[in-house]
Amino acid sequence: MKKILLTFAAFFMVVQSTMALSPMAENAMAAQTATMAANNTQEKYKWEFWWSAGVDLATNYMWRGFDQSYRGGNGNMVDPSFQPGISFGYGKFYIELWGNASLLSDYKEFDMFLGFEHKNLTITLYDVFCGVGSEFNTKFFDGDKHSLTATIDYTFFDRLNIHWATTFIHSADFITKGKRAGKRAFSSYFEVAYTQPFGNLMDMTLRAGASPWTGPFWCPSRVGDEFDWDNPAEGFNVTNLSVTLSHEFERGDLCFPVELSYIYNPTSKYHYAVFKAGFNF
Fold this sequence. Notes:
With 281 residues, the chain is mostly beta strands. It has one domain (2-280): monomeric porin ompg (Porin). 8% of the residues lie in helices and 53% in strands. The protein has helices at residues 2-19, 37-41; strands at 49-58, 62-63, 66-67, 81-90, 93-102, 107-118, 121-132, 146-156, 160-170, 188-198, 202-211, 220-223, 226-232, 237-251, 254-265, 270-280. The strands form 3 sheets. The protein has a 12-stranded antiparallel barrel. Strands 2-3 form a two-stranded antiparallel sheet. The chain starts with a helix and ends with a strand.
């Protein structure tokens, strides 16, 4: 625990020293599945209908510092993922549909977002339907395959983003040990992200994310070289320390975002290098 706290403290020292380098600039969203709606409504908020769509191809689907293909413990650290999405909005409110299809592990996911954005504040409620292989090929309205999570993001100085997410409904989100065994765990995730632009060249984003308490839904323990998803890591656990370099190329109404990330998960002790590229309009 002391090593984790020292690592967390060192990260914040880096953030504080970086904040003094230059004037404040564009907004940085911290959520691992950031909505395309933010890029389209950040500055206008007109009460009119709008829409956007896009697709990304990533070398791996990472979420909160964990490899969602479940292949991290098998020595295969690369699992290309195809990730399309589409958003529909009216003013500050939007609905987004987002999907992931991992090409090697057969992990699939379909998410539905309901969001509200006002100035520096973003609030979302989203449902996740996911599974590996035959687990995903079940009836969509099977409640055991869904989870419902609420998130809140707030951005300070157009650079520093605070993200909180709590799961309210999931078939596995129950405490398994101790006096509170059998009660809802309300698995949660807290993240701080800071973005430093370097002119028109690129943006650099530093992130630190953690599970604030035992969260059976998403934070597994590690046994040998495997993730043990049936036994959650107990207590406070830092799961996501990362640095991302990103740039957006524009051509007419098309935008081509490209990013390269280094991710370290202190809980699983895995390192990842992830490249992502795509387009949206």
